[in-house]
Amino acid sequence: MKSWKLFSLFIIAAYIISGIFLLSLAQTKHHISLLGYDDTPLLPGGKWHVHDINRPQPVKVTAGTYSTQARVGLPPSDAEVLFDGKDLSKWRGAKGGPALWTIRDGYMEVAPKTGDIYTREEYGNIQLHVEWATPAPLQPGHEYQGNSGVFLQGAYELQVFESSVTLIYADGEAGAIYGQYPPLVNSSRAAGEWQDFDVVFSPGRFKDGKMEIPPYITAFQNGVLIHNHTAIMGDSMNMVLPVVKDHGQTGPLRLQDHHDLVRYRNIWVRRLKDYDTK
Ligand code: MG
Predict the structure, then answer these.
(1) What is the DSSP letter of 139?
(2) Residue 54: which region, alpha, beta or left (left: phi > 0; alpha: psi -120 to 50)?
(3) Cα of 175 from ligand 1 centre, angstroms
(4) Tens of pLDDT along the chain (278 residues)?
(5) How big is the CA angle at 137 (ends 134 and 141), to the nearest 5 degrees?
(6) How many Å lie between the centroid of ligand 1 and the Cα of residue 2?
(7) Closest CA to 98 of 108, 276, 107, 42
(8) Alpha carbon distance 35, 255 (integer Å)
(9) Which alpha helices (DSSP H) does the chain contain, by range?
(10) Cis peptide before 76 (omega within 30 of 0)
(11) 255 Cα to the center of ligand 1, angstroms
(12) Cβ partners under 8 Å of residue 100, min gap 6
């Protein structure tokens, strides 16, 4: 091989080796800090770079603990506790008077025919945790077993019912969005056992009486997914179509008195904010 050929090969090899060296240097530069960068590509929306050094850290929240049958868990540190087993001060009757349900041994129980109860505060985008138990043993002669419900914005019912053995139409069993969607699966525990709903809810947007964006619900019953970002059709109704009604951006939470001795405990809510907000 002639010497100029050897020389060219040497030059090419030198280029390749120095290229690899420079690339590794560049990669080293991007691995020297975990605090972030200001020269990485902008994410769609144009506000933040990938791994943006200026992006605010999320608010710190101390996680809660899970309940057991015998013991109530702790809510997350930023939750608003709506019922801690002691009093109904966060709740009212339909007309604004005191909530008249019974409090006993760390839970509240429907006092039949005293009416639904509502939170005094109103809520929009929320994470909601509710624990409930239907009466045990089953109530002889009752057509409905353990009927109650959790109404989001006072209007959209997440059904409470004894559904471990009691049959009812699919969109009326425990975890149903009443009259619209059955739960994805039936994850009900036995009558008398504590069960829980964990819900993520966002209100709808309405214009001129029409629903432009539906209210959305994601829900778990006893840790099992029962609704996955489901579009709610309107107010929960019995035997007729859901009614489309503008409830604005907030509304009270409501628990149903369907005359059955359903119990509730450990109810808390978190108002949800967008990313990068304190
Ligand atoms: Mg109900």
Answers:
(1) -
(2) alpha
(3) 10
(4) 556 566 566 666 655 555 554 445 455 455 567 899 999 999 998 899 999 999 999 999 999 999 999 999 999 999 999 999 999 999 999 999 999 999 999 999 999 999 999 999 999 999 999 999 999 998 777 777 999 999 999 999 999 999 999 999 999 999 999 999 999 999 999 999 999 999 999 999 999 989 999 999 999 999 999 999 999 999 999 999 999 999 999 999 999 999 999 999 999 999 999 999 98
(5) 90
(6) 92
(7) 108
(8) 46
(9) 3-29
(10) no
(11) 9
(12) 93, 111, 114, 115, 117
For the chain, what are the domain ranges?
A: 80-271
Which DSSP state fits 114?
S
Q: How far is the CA of 118 from the centre of ligand 1 (A)?
A: 15
Please tell me the distance between residue 4's alpha carbon and the centre of ligand 1 in angstroms.
90
- Give the residue among 257, 255, 218 at the shortest CA–CA distance from 131: 255
Is the model's pTM score more than 0.85?
A: yes
Q: How far is the CA of 15 from the centre of ligand 1 (A)?
A: 75
Measured in angstroms, how far is the CA atom of residue 119 from the centroid of ligand 1? 17
Q: Which amino acid appears at position 142 of this protein?
A: H
Q: Which amino acid is at 273?
A: K
CB 261 within 8 A of CB 145: no
Residue 11 corresponds to which tokens in the numbers above?
A: 């030059």
Q: Which CATH code is given to the segment(s) 80-271?
A: 2.60.120.560
The Cα–Cα gap between 195 and 165 comes to 15
The CA–CA distances, whole Å, from 270 to 61, 64, 266 equal: 11, 12, 13
